[in-house]
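Proteins fold reproducibly. Next comes a concrete instance:

***
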Amino acid sequence: MTRFADIPRPIRCGIVIVDPERGTPQRVIVLQFNPDTLERSLQPQAAGGEGDGKGGGDKNEALRLKGPAQESWKFTAEIDSTDQLEIAAPDGIHPQLAALEMLVHPTTAQIRENSRLSKKGAIEISPIEKPLTLFTWGSKRVMPVRLTELSVNESAFDVNLNPMRAALSIGMKVLSVSDLPAGHRGAELYMAHLAQKERLAGIAPAAGIGALGLGAGGLGGGAGGGAVGGGFAASGTGRG
């Protein structure tokens, strides 16, 4: 067994519930197994609209952005109590499931308080606000999120019908400065997340324009066809 002592333990991904005022973690939910795959989607916030493909968009706004891209994540996580037999589980995986489900439920105290205000004739009752939620995927991806989907597929039960194993389909939207008020701790954390992307983009391997089959004259075009046209022509001729 000692020969495996130097193998580092994998970092787990997870969800952190944060007090937005103090910035202190209120609860940490560590996913038992890291998902095998991640599906990420980024939708740019174009300033001029998408247009209709016939010049319907504002040409002066074609390269402008209103803000950060809208980013969403989807993945499947697994919980399996049979993989942790050394830990007593009289309730199966009910506690783990409940911790995740409470991310999309208000608390009973919040519901009762809104009901009390309603009975007192409050003119306006604000929607219930949940604590700041962060999703962590290693040290380079820590971002504020809102869960948009939580689907549970339970597949094994004990004699008391407690679930013992489940697959969770989790969808979340990354909250950017476009979603959060100025000065909110979540907005600051998103800016740190975006700055991390900038840093990583800065150390990405660079390539010369010659790798694209374009001439050294650059990308500028002229009346005679321009450097871009000439570059593609040369690339095509080389294949023949």
Remarks:
- The two ends are 60 Å apart (CA to CA).
